[in-house]
Specification:
Elements lengths: L7 E10 L8 E6 L4 E5 L6 E8 L5 E7 L3 E8 L19 E7 L2 E8 L4 E8 L2
Parallel strand pairs: 1-7
Antiparallel strand pairs: 1-4, 2-3, 2-5, 5-6, 7-8, 8-9
Subcellular location: Secreted
Family: Belongs to the plant self-incompatibility (S1) protein family.
Protein name: S-protein homolog
């Protein structure tokens, strides 16, 4: 018998730059053990995203920089059911699209809610 780890394809992580237009440029670098997505400088209002096949061991993290004094590093995906291990209460179970929104007051995690037809966000952490 072979021990085959099931892969769940079609997973997505979105990072929406929702910072003020007049603010410093957002920069982030996201990676996993297998993939380096490089340094990104998305324009305000744009959605940087990627798709991947995930197993229960898949982890993507991002390091964010904004202005002189703001930087954060945290996992943006590490859980097949809730995007991140502490995502219960932020997203619905079995969410396949992890929606992150970067704002001046911090980071928000959300998901597309079919009932209301839009993404619902909850603040996850401060800068």
């Amino acid at each position: 018998m072979h021990n085959i780890q099931a892969a769940y394809c079609g997973r997505q992580v979105h990072i929406l730059n929702n910072l003020p237009v007049t603010s410093p440029q957002l920069e982030f670098h996201c990676a996993s053990g297998d993939d380096d997505l490089g340094h990104n400088f998305p324009a305000v209002g744009t959605d940087f995203h990627w798709k991947f096949c995930a197993t229960k061991y898949t982890l993507f993290f991002c390091h964010f920089w904004w202005g002189q004094n703001n930087n954060q590093v945290f996992d943006v995906f590490n859980d097949l059911h809730y995007c991140i291990h502490d995502g219960n209460g932020y997203v619905q179970e079995y969410t396949s699209e992890c929606m992150w929104k970067v704002q001046a007051d911090g980071f928000y995690l959300g998901y597309f809610n079919q009932d209301v037809g839009k993404v619902l966000y909850t603040k996850y952490r401060d800068w």
